[in-house]
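Catalogue entry: protein

Sequence with per-residue C-alpha cells
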Amino acid sequence: MPKVVDHEARRRHLAEAVWALTVRDGLEGVTLRKVAAEAGVSMGQVQHYYGSMEKLVGDAVARAVHALNAKIESSIQEAAARAGGTASAETMLRSCLHAMLARDEESLRLLRLSVAVLGKAISDPAMAGVLAPGDDELLSFTAGFITEARADRGTPARGDARLDADICWSLAVSLGVDIAIGHRTRDEAERLLDYHLENVLG
C-alpha cells in the first residue's frame, strides 16, 4: 500500500523552518538551501512545494498571520471558558488585546518573526499583514466589546468606539513589538495596556 503523504504537514514544517531562520538570522538570511537544511529535507522537496523563494516566504508569513489571529481567538475562548461561557465584554476585550503581549513562547516567537519581516513591508505590502491584526471585522468586533463594557460599567457613551478599538490594537501591537525586541518586559507592557483600557472604559 502506498504511503500517504501529508502535504499540509510538510508545508507547515517548511514554514516553521522559515520562521526559525528569520528569527535567528533575519529575513535576508533565508535561502531555499538553508530552509532545506533547517527542515532536515532535500532541496528537491522544498522546490516541489515552492517554486520560488518569494512563494515560500509569502506562505510562511501568511501562516504567521493566521497563527497570530488564532492566538487572539484562543484567548477569547479561554476567557469564556474560565467564566463558564458567560465572560463579560470587558474580560473578553482584555483577553484578546493581551494576546498580543507574548504570553507564551510561541507568541513571543511569532512577534519576533513579525519584527524581522517588518523591513520587507516597505517594498512588499503583503509582509505588513503579519503586524496588522486590525482588519474591519476585528475592529468592529472590538468596538462592540468596548461599547458593551462601558454600558456594564455605567460609563456614558462617548467618542467613536471603532476608533478607540483601532487605537487599542495599535497600542497592543506596538507593545508586543517592544516585548519582542526586549524594550519592555511583559509585565510593563500589560500595566501600560491596562492603564489605557481604564481610560477607554472609565
Remarks:
- The CA atoms of residues 88 and 196 lie 18 Å apart.
- The first helix runs from residue 7 to 25.
